[in-house]
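Intended use. Records like the one below are meant for learning the mapping from a protein sequence to its folded structure. Do not use them to infer anything beyond what is encoded.
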Amino acid sequence: MPAGFVRRTRLRARLAEAVQAPVTMLSAPAGYGKTLLLADWIATTGESDKAWISLDSGDNEAGRFWSEVLAAIGECGVVPRDSPLRDLDPPAGPDVAGFLADLIDALDALPAPLFLILDEVHEVTDGQTLHGIETVIRHQPAALRLVLSSRSDPPLPFARLRVQGRLSEMRACDLRFSGEDAARLLETANVRLTGEQLRRLVEQTEGWAAGLRLAARSLREEPDPDVFLAAFASDDHAVADYLVGEVLARFPGETREFLRTISVCDEVTPVLAEMLSGRDDAGAVLDTLERENSLVMGVGRGHRWYRIHPLLRSYLRADLDRRRPELSADLHRIAAAWFAGEENPHQALDHAARADEQDTVVDLLRTHAVALLLNGDHLLTRHALSIAGPAATGDPWLTLISAIAQLEAGDLATSEANLAKVTTTPETAPLGRLVAATHALAAGRPASVVDWHDVVSGQDGPGLEALARLTAGWALVGSPDKARPELHAAKQLAHDQGFDYLVMHTLVAEGAAAGIAGDYRAMEMACTEAVAIAERHGWRRSPWLAPCHVMRGFARLTHLDPAGALEEAAQAAGLAGRSPDPRLLFLIGLLQGTARFDTGHQSAGLRRVQRARRELADADLLPELVGGAALIEYRCALLLRQHASARDVRVWARQRGGATAESSLMTAWSWFARGDIEPADRLVEGVLNGGLPTLTPATRIEGCLLKSALSLRSGRRTRALGALDDAVRLAEPAELIRPFHQADAAVRQLLAGQTGGFGAADAFAAKVRLALSKVDGDGGNGVLTEREHVVLARLPSQRSLDEVASELSVSVNTIKTHVRAIYAKLGVNNRREAVAAARERGLT
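Structure written out for the chain above:
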């Protein structure tokens, strides 16, 4: 095996299962790793029952071919010394029928299975040799397993074998490298890529092993992987040499020219291929190429479309541009006209831009630009606008389109400059107001609510109503009840019109509205769906995903998953860059700092939160966000005994939001920390009785937990249990676990000892206890009571609970209560799992 070979255990296991069939066919173009997979399988399973022949063009003579087969079989340990196979002579003339009969009889007499591997079968084109292989297949002995490896399907009776259930097949789609496989391959070459870079490389190569190895070779010397990946397929000499020498050289000249002409399109139909190539038989050529070489494949329902492997297509297209640029431009014009006639504006605009057809580009933009933008084609639209040049600059409608495109790219300065250029006309005024409102939202400024009736009046462009209602929903997001109808209508319209990008954007807005309303579960679900749409379409850099990741990060925080929150914060920070929206940057900083605090880096976490608030300066912030942020920072400062900092937060919150339940809760926390129990208790009762406006759902939960702590401090255990029970029930619907993590130690101990005492909410209480033990890193050790440790130590024995109870001189019901508590704290369901978990965590 070569150095740097990546063993793919699952694929090898699949091959080991496949070769149990009478005939196995590995069919894939050059460089897909067929030979290495077979070699790895043999190295793993042993050589004594494997006969291997590597074929070449010299094997197109039956006598030589069968001589090599006999020689390879003779080296196999499973062939007895007295087997006729060792004395059989290869055929000396054209009549091989007698030899084949003797060969089949001798194989049939073998006492154990024998695998005959014919590698590079595509090299065999001699009719007599192929007929001999077919004869062996037709009369295949029970002991023979025939394994064929080829770049294309040889003319053998595979259709009949499929019907008979005697054929196993592995093809290019099965042999492709996954992202995990590709990462391991690159590691062997000392190449490290980011997740996004790796995804791009696997996408470019479609998991083609040869392409990945060639890329790895070049990336070792490349200081900037992004620059390399941008030009990899068309400019890398190693790839070009391989494609020319191993792939294109095997095609006739007219086929290479055919592939070169259709390479201007990502996908073609037979009709389009005929127009591009001028060949009446274009459909038949595509069909033959698909059947004989999977570097050309049919796609879509009914295989109406065909595409060339991305690496080969990129090379062919670049080669065409270099050698015959005038032909390339003509082909793009043909494609643009064809796609325009097929009502495919994306492809039509792409080809018109590549052909530098300015008038066509302008016409297509005026008709289709809004739809293209709403479906995520921002890069293409901006490129087309640059091609349109002065024609776009002097057109008010296209100038507004340019402003929208720049907004979606996060370039607010250029967008604002375009808005300033627009000469208002009756036609453009409504769209201008819509773009201005969207620009204000993106810049973090208050935006007026746009009347969508006004925007769509007199316009027939699809999607304008959806965009207008989305913008209105964003403007109303601080009043969720008013925002929801607009956002729901926008999402439905976008979905009905197939504008997935707009659906994604609307989901982000719905998540924000849900978060402001305190419905964190709905917030997380909406944002997760938005991220899934972005992943599916490759819109990973959309600026609208930054707030999406922020919201998912805060959801992770509420579930007490600070590591997950940090990951989401990093995603948001990468997407936001130097966003002009101070609110977004504030929330990212708040998320980063809080997550760091919860992972144990408390001082650094608090400093990050404080810096985020300072940098917010005087920017507007919704009261709900003020309240939630203040509670987080105040609590962190108080836990670190930074009382001056805590007081500063309380003043900031009161100046921003006035007298709220949150400001009273902060004061109560401070009094509790000083030991002023009675005044703190009175304040908490005010918080819980609704005397002041409450901005966040966590406030009541925090109030109940503080009430429980105050009650324990004053010796009122029953009241403490009631307040803790209220906190658990309030937190359960949205699974708000984080407040319990920062609760007083006595309250946490009370929670740990109350297994079974929360009724319908007991399962959630158990989840809280387990989450607390995981984050604290004590594996349950810090929350098990002394008596529970005593009971836990006796669980590994075979004694019954009755016997344990008798030994400890308590009732069996008491032991059962302790056992239930142990199960809940360790996150297990039975005695055996409890013993295993305790041993793993060092508790026994």
